[in-house]
Amino acid sequence: MLGTRVPLVGRHFALFTRRGMYDSRRLEEVWGEMLAEHGVRTFGDLRPGSLGVVVTDLSHARGVVFPEGLRAYGYEPADFSVARALRMSAAVPFLFTPVRLKNRINGDKALMADGAMAANYPAGVVSKDRPVLGFRLVLDDIGHAAEHQKVRGPLTLARSVVTAGIRAQYALPRPPEPGVSVVQVPVRNDLDFDMSNDEAQRVFARARKAAKEQLPALMSEMAA
Question: What is the pTM of this model?
Answer without folding.
Answer: 0.70
